[in-house]
Design brief:
Two copies of one chain form a homodimer.
Chain A: E1 6-9, H1 18-27, E2 32-34, H2 47-53, E3 65-68, E4 76-79, H3 81-91, H4 102-123, H5 136-166, H6 180-195, H7 197-204, H8 208-218, H9 221-227
Parallel strand pairs in A: 1-2
Antiparallel strand pairs in A: 1-3, 3-4
Helix pairs in contact in A: 1-3, 1-6, 3-4, 4-5, 4-6, 6-7, 6-8
Chain lengths: ~260, ~260
């Protein structure tokens, strides 16, 4: 098939959880194919996703799934976003400056994953199998709690982590400097700004280091090139972060 | 303080997410202190949890947190259940028979974590800050979708993984044999049986290998000794898995 080192299997039309993997692959300068986004006659579409999920002896519950072809131990096929990022960090020093911080990075990534799960459930608090329109009232109640209590708590935690590091030398989430977790922070902050512009504006003043980190990540050369390319899909009403104005806070910044 | 190799920081009255770590420590035969369960005058209670979460330069979002004292690189303090288990597996071969399967184990653990998150949200679909009684109607709707669609899908996935392995030599979730992921499967299946006895009975026939795995784990010598000890807390209405009969399916087994 392809000669790229990596094949990413993720839904072709959305950023979703696949975006955390795309950002890492881009920052690492890795050669990869976003399989489902290929034309159908070149092996694209959702069929290859279904096939890789249901491979006997190598099943995965859901995308994203990353295949690494040509390792010394043969093909390696991995699911679960945080697991994929942990694996990529073992192969690309750009993503983790100090291997002894592997668990510190994974812990932060999993805390972001918890936050992302809660962000998703603001628009689907009852069931992912139902339309948003069938759970709008519940979505509004869940969003209120998320935006008023959980967003400040999560962002405050990440801000405090960066502040601790800034006291020494790093203005990143890891004390040793830039890592894949900063890419995740960028994506999460971008998603919040898209989905909940009022709540984002209201919280930004309290987390200046996190906002600065988001902007610094966006201007990293490989990330800036990626964001300006057609490989970067737009946010939309089909991903993790969805903009339903009625779910946002009605007030903007506190100023 | 203590001379144990590990200190576990987790809410003292519940199994919760801490139980996955307790099971791994017990299976490894590790020496550990369940800090918050010590008497207050011996440093127990929830204060040490709060302190370890808010340590500048080493913050954690939530328990469980595991401290490993006396490693060559100094103290290591880790949060996030799956991250803690991944770390323990690097130190105790009992928990992971083949280190090259680290990512396969982590992926499965994270899929269980997703399932556990959904199980929790059946009784708290709107907000963890509200009482169950304030979200009962929403909890019923969410539980229906969880029990009718998500439980069969998750359990079916794990069953298929075991079935693939059984075709070769293992009847565990990893092809190489018993690992910490099997302990997690035991705990999740036990939690489902406690919280949703009708739904559990209804699904059991479809996942015989998973049910057999649960029973095999319970009879492992160290796990059996742990389950019979006072260190094992009971399931209750305060943990991840809660038994509210009105949330369960009304039918039992299909027979």
């Amino acid at each position: 098939m392809s000669t790229a080192a990596y094949e990413l299997f993720y839904w072709p039309g959305i950023q979703g959880r696949g975006e955390f993997v795309r950002l890492a692959l881009e920052e690492a300068g890795a050669s990869y194919v976003d399989v489902a986004r290929l034309p159908k006659d070149q092996g694209g579409g959702v069929d290859p996703i279904r096939r890789i999920l249901e491979t006997a002896g190598g099943r995965h519950f859901a995308p994203p799934v990353l295949a690494y072809r040509g390792g010394a131990a043969g093909d390696l096929v991995i699911g679960q976003t945080a697991c994929i990022l942990d694996f990529l960090a073992t192969r690309h020093a750009e993503l983790l400056p100090d291997p002894s911080l592997r668990h510190a990075a994974l812990e932060l990534q999993l805390t972001f994953a918890d936050f992302i799960g809660e962000a998703h459930d603001t628009h689907h608090p009852i069931s992912s199998a139902l339309y948003y329109e069938d759970q709008k009232a519940e979505a509004k109640r869940r969003s209120d709690g998320f935006l008023r209590a959980r967003v400040p708590r999560f962002l405050g935690h990440f801000e405090a982590v960066i502040r601790d590091n800034a006291a020494s030398s790093s203005s990143s989430l890891l004390g040793a400097g830039f890592s894949y977790v900063d890419l995740t922070a960028f994506q999460v902050m971008s998603g919040l700004a898209y989905a909940f512009p009022n709540a984002y504006a209201r919280n930004s003043d309290d987390v200046p280091l996190l906002v600065a980190l988001k902007e610094r990540v966006a201007s990293r050369p490989r990330i800036a090139a990626y964001l300006a390319s057609s490989r970067r899909l737009p946010f939309s009403q089909h991903g993790l972060f969805r903009h339903y104005p009625e779910l946002d806070l009605s007030e903007g910044p506190r100023r």
